Amino acid sequence: MKNSFKISALILAFAGLSFGAKAQTATTTTTTATTTTTGGIRYSIGVDAGIPVGNFKDNYKWNLGGSLQADIPVYKNQLFVTVNAGYNNVFGKKNVGGVANADVTDFKLLPVKAGLKFFPIENFYVQGEAGAAFLLNKSDLGANKSTAFVYAPQIGVQFPVSKSSFIDAGVRYEATTKYATGVDQSKVNFIGIRVAYGF
Questions:
Q1: Cα–Cα distance between 88 and 90 in angstroms, integer?
Q2: How many CB atoms lie within 10 A of CB 86?
Q3: What whole-number distance in Å separates Cα of residue 158 and Cα of residue 198?
Q4: CA–CA separation, 109 and 107 (whole Å)
Q5: How many alpha carbons fall within 13 Å on the CB side of residue 22?
Q6: How many CB atoms lie within 10 A of CB 199?
Q7: Quick one: which of 42, 49, 41, 45 has its CA closest to 68?
Q8: C-alpha 122: how far from its chain's center?
Q9: Which helix (H) or strand (E) holds 87?
């Protein structure tokens, strides 16, 4: 299962490159998709939230955080390189198994990712990112690793607020490798949303 998600992220990245290359060979009469602002690097600041999935959901209930992102244009207003950094707190369940004070320690993560964002049609995008997620409370969790590989395929929409600003709303699957050797529950997996203000 984990390999299929890694493959999906890579496919999104390669698809973005392929479509960008194909668009360059299109005739000038073809209408190309655009985003909602004109030229240059686009920045956004957003709120991230999600629900754990897989084995991870056994001990964790939801996550909340924030992120900053830069979209760097590669081809017109269709293909961008993305750089994203943020903070994510995954909240542990309380009284696990009905045992009083059997509380699970929160995961405190600092993910840093880069990838590609492609607009196949106006305002709708597919995005694939990968990078490293740094565990800020390793000792509290008894983990033996403070860094894990993270990947996140995403789809979303971007719509204008004004001539120079926009709202970016996306849904993604995000997952990491293990923070504790041999412990599957130390892999962070969630379905998340990001709602951001861009300028």
A1: 6
A2: 20
A3: 9
A4: 6
A5: 9
A6: 12
A7: 45
A8: 21
A9: strand 79-92
Residue 35 has a pLDDT of: 52
From CA 108, how far away is CA 141, in angstroms rounded? 10
State how far the Cα of 13 lies from the Cα of 39, in Å rounded to an integer: 21
List the one residue out of 39, 71, 77, 73 whose CA is nearest residue 198.
71
Do residues 154 and 126 touch, judged by C-beta distance below 8 A? yes
Rounded to 5 degrees, what are φ and ψ at 2?
-65, -35
pLDDT bracket for residue 95 (50, 70, 90): confident
What would the two tokens of residue 51 be? 């629900």
Tell me the average pLDDT across 50-72: 96
pLDDT at 166 over 50: yes
Instruction: Count the neighbouring beta carbons within 10 Å of the beta carbon of residue 63.
Output: 22
Q: Which one has a higher pLDDT value, 149 or 36?
A: 149
- CA distance linking residue 88 with residue 46, whole number of Å: 12
What whole-number distance in Å separates Cα of residue 62 and Cα of residue 193?
12
Tokens at 35, concatenated: 């985003």
Looking only at the bridges linking them, the beta strands covering 107-121 and 147-162 are unpaired
Backbone angles phi, psi at 56, to 5 degrees: -65, -30
Note the helical H segments in the chain.
2-24, 138-141
